[in-house]
Amino acid sequence: MDTKKIISRAPGLVFWALFLLCSVHLPAATPGSSVKLSKEVLMDKIRGGWGGQAIGCTYGGPTEFKYSGIIGDEVKIGWNENSVKWYFDHSPGLYDDIYMDLTFVEVFQKEGLDAPIESFAKAYANAPYPLWHANKQGRYNILNGIMPPESGYWENNPHADDIDFQIEADYAGLMAPGMVNAAVHYSDGIGHIMNYGDGWYGGVYVAAMYALAFVSDDMDYVVTEALKTIPKQSKYYKAMASIIKWHKQYPADWKTTWALFNNEYGEDIGCPDGVFNAFNIDAVVNSGYILIGLLYGDKDFAKTIDISTRCGQDSDCNPASAGGILGTMLGYSNIPEVWRQPLDIVADRPFVYTDISFNKASEYSFDQALKVIELNGGRVGDEYVTIKTQSPQTVRYEKSFEGHYPKKLVRFWKTFSQFQKFEFEGNGIVVAASYKKDKGYKDHGLVGVIETYLDGKLAATCKNPTKGNGASSEIFYKYNLPEGKHTLTFKFVNKEPGIDVYVHRFLIYTGKEEAGK
Questions:
Q1: Which of 66, 149, 171, 474 lies most in the core, judged by the most C-beta atoms within 10 Å?
Q2: DSSP 28-52
Q3: What is the DSSP string of 330-369?
Q4: pLDDT tens for residues 484-513?
């Protein structure tokens, strides 16, 4: 069946059929059972996933990282028929969680479901868009010969527990409707390009919820069943299970659950930007905000994305994930028109840094979903698909920063020329720095070679370009050191007149659990 015809017909000639099929109650699918969907409904749900993500991202865009706490009702978040178009025209970089997704979707489309991880890693590392946090360090690692999964491993990536893969895992759930383990499978290699441990689990959980949203409209079932993919001993599992428990205790009060959650799980120990700081891009915290929106939103689209937004922190990506999961459950045709109409205006315009539009992304995911259905024991007919659902399997246990507790953050603000050495006591350290360019310095794209000496021995060499997207935010990081006193010295090997390295901060770790408290 022609997917373009499916798109053009919904919600047109088949609107009422879609409405009836998508709005009837879908009982929680018994794992291992078969679920039959028309191709029109399957496409409508895929469009709901991509569309809900784009709408949620747009809605939360004006608030992104402007609030570390709850965004109160007195803060009015605008929405009108030109909201999506305005961002497409004026600030298209807002949609980083979508164009990152599409990098991986495009590789699957070009190379097939068994595309090697190297293809995804190279496409991501060489893409023209800027990156931050775990993504940025993952890119640096790949460009410097550290390939996945080592590129996302916490000893090679101080941002391993950050939100990055969580905001990019939508593709995996959308290509594996009803097949939770398949969704997890397509999350493994790619998720370890940039993340590990709780950072990876964020993407696994999101992908699993997407997959289950195709075959059940019971949100409690979806979030609980998807959580079975996460190891129970992980902080991530305990945090999400706590929200599910508190939702049952306080079903009408999301702010109480928010407060309990942040009190118990709101401290970041990994991200150098978030430790000892109100800023928090940790996957556990932001996954919690997705989950609060899904549970307290009562399957009302506006309420769901509004609550996820008002939880704060990464308040465009969180409603994007919540909106995408609920949009998959509802189907695009059942998202209220006031939300759909602004996206429909740009439905054929490519997202920035890609040649893939909302409509084309839906076509690609639909095509991939049909292949995954067949590959996993289902059937694809002319008008219908039969999906063989799966019993969630728990992924392996991973933990970042084991035995490392933040001890002290030293804000430095000095160039290499202004200090001789830095002494610290602990079992780990992360050094954040950037270039300081004098007025008149002609930047020709120097790849600065920065050597770090630990206790008098060369410990690492950082190769940071002054132009482009290939630099690391941290010029040095080292964990699992013998607990005790250590000394760092630095050398800018190919220093030129007019440029120096500006050290921002030293984050020091210790193996003593009560550190920093």
A1: 171
A2: PPPTT-EEEEEHHHHHHHHHHHHHH
A3: H-GGGS-HHHHHHHHTTTTSPPTTSS--HHHHHHHHHHHH
A4: 999 999 999 999 999 999 999 999 999 988
Work out how many domains the chain is built from and give that number: 2
For 71, other C-beta atoms within 10 Å of its C-beta total: 19
Which residue is associated with the tokens 């865009």?
61
**228: its two tokens:** 């079975």
Q: How far apart are CA 363 and CA 366, in angstroms?
A: 5
**Is the preceding omega at residue 11 within 30 degrees of 0, hence cis?**
yes
Quick check: helix, strand or coil at residue 462?
strand
* CA terminus-to-terminus distance, the chain: 61
Report the CATH number that the domain containing residue 177 is assigned in CATH: 1.10.4080.10
Q: Which domain holds residue 206?
A: 3-62+78-388
Those residues with Cβ within 8 angstroms of residue 43's Cβ, 6 or more apart along the chain or in another chain = 3, 6, 7, 10, 362, 366
53 alpha carbon, distance to own chain's centre? 12
**Cα 503 to Cα 24, 158, 421, distances in angstroms:** 59, 17, 12
In a domain, 396, yes or no: no
What is d(CA 307, CA 305) in angstroms, rounded to the nearest whole number? 6
pLDDT in tens, 235-245: 999 999 999 99
Other Cβ atoms closer than 10 A to 420: 8
Residues 301 and 353 in one domain: yes
The answer to whether residues 343 and 423 belong to one domain is no
Whether 307 is in a domain gets the answer yes
pLDDT confidence band for 68 (50 / 70 / 90):
confident
The CA distance from 408 to 412, in Å, is 12
Give phi and psi for 475, each to the nearest 5.
-80, -15
Specify the 3-state DSSP secondary structure of 484.
strand
Q: Same domain, yes or no, for 348 and 223? A: yes
The domain boundary residue, chosen from 358, 388, 418? 388
| Cα–Cα distance, 135 to 149 (Å, whole number) | 13
Task: Based on the fold, state whether residues 310 and 229 are members of the same structural domain.
Answer: yes
pLDDT (tens digit per residue) in 429-482: 999 999 999 999 999 999 999 999 999 999 999 999 999 999 999 999 999 999
Q: Residue 337 contacts by C-beta under 8 Å, 6 or more apart in sequence?
A: none
Half-sphere exposure of 285 (CA within 13 A, CB side): 27
Owner of token pair 């950050």:
162
Count of C-beta atoms within a 10 Å radius of residue 218: 18
Q: Which two tokens stand for residue 269?
A: 């120990």
Q: Give SS3 for 475.
A: strand
Among residues 356, 388, 420, which one ends one of the domains?
388
Same domain, 367 and 440: no
pTM reported for the whole predicted model: 0.94
Beta bridge partners of 379: 386
